[in-house]
Specification:
Largest sheet: 4 strands, antiparallel
Number of domains: 2
Number of helices: 8
CATH class of the largest domain: Alpha Beta
Strand order of the largest sheet: 1-2-3-4
CATH topology of the largest domain: Ubiquitin Conjugating Enzyme
Order of helices and strands: HEEEEHHHHHHH
Radius of gyration: 21 Å
CATH architecture of the largest domain: Roll
Helix content: 40-55%
Structural class: alpha+beta
Strand content: 5-15%
Number of strands: 4
Amino acid sequence: MKDAERVNLILEHFRELQAKYPELNLNQNLFGEWVVRGPVRVAASFETTEILIEGVNVEIILPLLYPDMHPVAREETGLTEDFHTYPDGKLCLGSPLAVKATFARHPSLVGFVEQLVIPYFFAYQYWKKHGEVPFGELSHGGEGLLEYYQDLFDISAGDKVMGLLRILADGDYRGHLPCPCGSNIILRRCHGDTLREVTILQTADEFLMDYCSIARHLYENGKFIPREFMSRRVVSKRSRNTSSHS
């Protein structure tokens, strides 16, 4: 997409957003990134619970490759700093892959705000009132990533999850081989569709980072990955490092 086309798209997406949330404004920062700022006031509901979201000031930073990459968000007053916020102040809107998948389905500023940002603030205010989040809550780090992939693949066994994640991390999809989940069905007829769907959302390097985070969590908890589910890229890197120190 040409720069002029990208700018026009951003302005169009912002007009759609401002029509629903008129107190928001749009500017560019010193790095050339477009930034949406302002208060968000909206009534949001989940099942039978309705919460009026107000008193929050958001900062939404659009990456230079928007909408091919999703924005990131902060709460400018520090209101949510004790609730699923990264050390740099960015809001943790879900597992990285889940955020990418959600934005891919709703690739606009309205989609980002209504599908990710508002649910985050709803969950925050619900948590402040009830001491728990309404949609279920992932743990942090590798444990949270494991929980996400267990849900995505509908598998409880961590080693089976790693078998599927290895395929994504190594870029090694072979649909005719048995699925690592242990179903005794070939991959393309089992978890193949799921793997193909998520492959377009992240690079193999990003899946490898998830793989290594989960592997570290499993190792720290006394669980080991079967040899056949070890990432070839990890093994190869270890071999190179060992050779360089010998």
